[in-house]
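ugh ok fine here u go
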Amino acid sequence: MECPHLSSSVCIAPDSAKFPNGSPSSWCCSVCRSNKSPWVCLTCSSVHCGRYVNGHAKKHYEDAQVPLTNHKKSEKQDKPQHTVCMDCSSYSTYCSAFTADRHKKRKLLENSSLNSKLLKVNGSTAAICATGLRNLGNTCFMNAILQSLSNIEQFCCYFKELPAVELRNGKTAGRRTYHTRSQGDNNVSLVEEFRKTLCALWQGSQTAFSPESLFYVVWKIMPNFRGYQQQDAHEFMRYLLDHLHLELQGGFNGVSRSAILQENSALSASNKCCMKGIYKTNSPKTERKENGASTVVTAIFGGILQNEVNCLICGTESRKFDPFLDLSLDIPSQFRNKRSKNQENGPVCSLRDCLRSFTDLEELDETELYMCHKCKKKQKSTKKFWIQKLPKVLCLHLKRFHWTAYLRNKVDTYVEFPLRGLDMKCYLLEPENSGPEHCLYDLAAVVVHHGSGVGSGHYTAYATHEGRWFHFNDSTVTLTDEDTVVKAKAYILFYVERQAKAGSDKL
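structure:
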């Protein structure tokens, strides 16, 4: 739902006398009959999927605004109208609170959107051209990633400058077609819809853009993201970059669109995903390096790690070079109880601590014994990562979600990160071969997860554009400042390689 007010994580057992027959998993949406992500309204007991539940909640609010006497009407306006619904999968409750006053404020903001997009810059009036992305039903995970990528200039410009692709022909040529996600049409292009979305975000002609067509393609080629349940923004980003790379690679190699779609389907069906440039299945033993032409994805986000493993019995050293598109960093265990920057129980965790933990020498435990080719059996060993080649855009993912026996917990620790001058030289395999200007990075965007679990909560993003910081919260875009950005509990950080002419600030 768009802009839900998340209640405290309350789990309630449904009363069989009040709710539809059968178990919650068998309930279907009263509009489209889908049983994907069912929600039950605690006001009238009707069931809707994630696509229609927000409109249903709004209707309850509108029905409550009946003609009243002036005295009663004023009382009604002061009292919020609460529409509570429950996720039938997790039994979490959500409240959409509406008030007449808030409704009027929203209308006023919409009507004066062009005026609100003006601000003073160096004595002259400049327009804020940023555009929000409408929430299509728990799609904040997608919106936050799209807004972040749209503010990585060299990546965004490449797609915006691509020529438009006309996918329709014959009788449908030149017509605007509307798709439903149940259609079997395979004639879709992720690159084209991604291009259209990026083009729409900084035109300034509208306050919010609906990424409906892009989401339709995501449903077609990424089955893991079908439905309206909350998803992991980092996982979505990995799949998105991977499939963009596959489609672009197919275009460069002359592979037909149908062949690319078949490869996409096979990739999803076999539960594979592109991790650090390597396709990994459920078994850690099977991995194959990605072959084929380089694309803008690998040219901008691609780096190379050197993985050194040493047998502790015979001393044999094994080296392997692994390409990566992002680095997933653990938050060191000694910092995991520290939730805020101002908490006084020990030092603040920094991004340097996370990077050091990633690259430090570690001894592999009993479940990760190394197959030593000299000893001819699995032995205890040590492992160390070095960065052999830095990417143009360094994407750092902080591992905030960890599986326990029954659920996935969130590490809510504040991690201090620099806005500019992140120095990566000390993590390089051969730092003497890299000039100082190629090791410094400045922050371009931050994705933040608000809430307690990966399957709930809300994603927003901060990004810098033409020297100003913006906060992207679905359809709402606001100007913010650096002090606000550095206080955020980052989940994904996008750092852009600094140009040689920039200053010399370092982390």
